Amino acid sequence: MRLTDLLHPHLDGVTTVVDATRGGLSLEPYLHLPPGVFLRGDDEQPVTEGELVLLSYGPDAELHGGEDACRAVLARMRPGARGLIVLGHRASELPYHRLLDHLVAHRCQVLRAAPLDYVHLHAGAVIARTDELLAPHDFFGRPVPADGHATALRIADEYVFADLASRSLRARVLDLERTVEEAERTRVAAGQDGLAERLAAAVREKEQLAAALRATRDRVDVLQARVAMLEGSTTLRVGKALVTAARSPKRGAVRLPGELYGLWRGRRRAAGPAPEGAPKDRAESDAPVDGRFHLAHRALTVAPRDRLVVAGVLTPATAEDFAADVVVNRLLPHDGRLLVQRTDPDVLVVQLSACAGDGPWSLTGTGLAPDLDRTLAELLAETRVLGRKAVLWRDGPASAAPGLARLAWDAVVDADTGVRLGRLDPVAEGRERLREVFRADSTRVRLSQLARTAGAPDPLDERRVAVLAAPRDRTDVARLVGQVLGQLHRPAEVVVPDPAGLDELTAAGVAVRRGRPLAPWVADWTDLTEDRPDTLLLDLMCAQEYSGADAVGHTPTADDYVFVPSLRPLLVRRSLHMSGAAPGSWAGQGHRLFAVRGKEPS
Fold it and tell me: Which keywords does the record carry (predicted)?
């Protein structure tokens, strides 16, 4: 909730707002007072009827002010005066019992309290100085029709029920925290008990395999030397010449003396040093034979890493969905270890359904394919050597591959892999379903959780939007702040010629800056008189993620979820916006334009 949403319903009959906040807090940019209501500084005079005083209280005394300053202002309030206390504490950590004593002592009643959506202000409460019990307000700030004894009963009853609900929730939270702590201790203990033994066994097996490989290579070198010696021997070459002549007596008998003479001359050259400039024998190799296997890998890059890189034991469908947002290296049993070494992924992901279903990793973790289990254990060991995370994506019942649970994982994800928006049918699913998937159930949201686990670039950064605006007066500033903070998909930054008066956006976590936009997507809101619904950016980003288009907007014919040759752009890729090309030429330059309907059909 914004501060204006909490304050404005209680400004009836108020003509003056007194700013009595202390420390470095300034609430003027948050208020957007209506005409006829004026803001003035605190002159430490009594606050009377028709006035509303602003107070602040929080954990940071230099920013919010202390408890003593707040109590001093409450003492100056007279009957009929109102106040707004902004709180730096989170609602779950608010020491309201300390404020409660001061409020009761100075005959102040709390009319409404609500959370605030700011970085350093987390809650607020509207109070009134009164000598009689006032009717409370509902969630929307409207007074409840009650008086006298009925009002007292309502407040008392609501307090009891609210305390019952809060105590139940607190007990549930404590139980969950205790369960998580016990599970973590069990997991750590189990991992520590078997980790050293498994690591020692893996090291021994690695050394044995390395010794066997060196012995095999030495044996191969000896055999190759013997074969080369035999192939170059005069006895073998004479035998070949005689066999060739015997197979074709007419031509071979005529050529045989010449071949034998050539062998004799070659043997004499081999016995002594070859003169300079002598031609090489055709049988002599120009370069040593390289018997190594070389890996052809498409996803390898040397550019600075700005995307999550996943090496995974994945199903084909999951690998395809992941590849739309991250770099995917799908591992196979014969080359998985080499891929992990060469590509240095951010995280190794093992999908349970890829082990329990069909595919190259089928039966892994079931105990029926010990060679695959050993290969997977080697992959996990190699991943840890590189200092990367290993994650089990358990998108099916654990009983399908119980052996996977015995491996040492850095994290376990118990969820499906999400839904890629491009696989949905917008007509059949509906706009509301697309919004729900986009915000909570999309593949990109799942990958964002994985990126946080691995400490890698977040795929949700590709959803950041920069709003371009140029407010000219206080009315434009208030309208811009309201439209930005009202969006269900909130912009990441607002680019304006002058950031004055936009402190509320900064406090709400929206960057305000001059110059060029930095977010991947740009929305031009220069015309602040236009009415923009709170679902505007959400629907535009849903359409972009569904289509992969470079620009999304409206058309005069109200086309919906179709590619079009021209449109009125509302959301544009930053690179396209910075190119300076006219929107009419975008389609001719190969850019994809996608249209969405401006308003949902009734």
Answer: Coiled coil
**Percentages (nearest 5) of helix, strand, coil residues in the chain:** 45, 15, 40
Do 465 and 571 form a contact (C-beta atoms < 8 A)?
Answer: yes
Task: In whole angstroms, give the CA distance from residue 319 to residue 443.
Answer: 11
pLDDT digits (tens, 9 = 90+) for 246-302: 666 666 566 666 666 566 666 555 545 545 554 444 444 444 444 444 444 445 555
CATH class of this structure's domain 3-145? alpha beta
**Predicted local distance difference test score (pLDDT) of residue 342:** 87
For residue 419, give the DSSP letter. B
Listed in order, strand segments (DSSP E) in 366-505 are 389-393, 411-413, 465-468, 493-495
Q: Look up residue 78 and give its DSSP letter.
A: -
Q: State the pLDDT at residue 467.
A: 97
Place of tokens 């009202």: 486
Q: Hunting for tokens 């770099």 — which residue is that? A: 327
Q: How far is Cα of residue 65 from the mean position of the Cα atoms in its chain?
A: 36
Q: What is the pLDDT of residues 343-395, one digit of tens each?
A: 889 999 999 999 998 999 999 999 889 999 999 999 999 998 888 999 999 99
According to CATH, where is 3.40.50 located in the chain?
3-145, 309-454
Taking 50 as the pLDDT cut, the residues of the chain under it are 271, 274, 278-298, 601-602
Please, where are the H alpha helices in 95-147?
96-105
| Residue 80 CB neighbour total at 10 angstroms | 15
d(CA 129, CA 131): 7
Report the SS3 class of residue 554: strand
- Choose which CATH entry (3.40.1010.10, 3.90.550.10, 3.40.47.10, 3.40.50.720) describes domain 459-595: 3.90.550.10
pTM: 0.74
The span from the CA of 277 to the CA of 77, in Å, is: 111
Which fold would CATH assign to domain 309-454?
Answer: Rossmann fold (3.40.50)
State how far the Cα of 541 lies from the Cα of 571, in Å rounded to an integer: 8
Residue ranges, CATH 3.90.550.10, the chain = 459-595
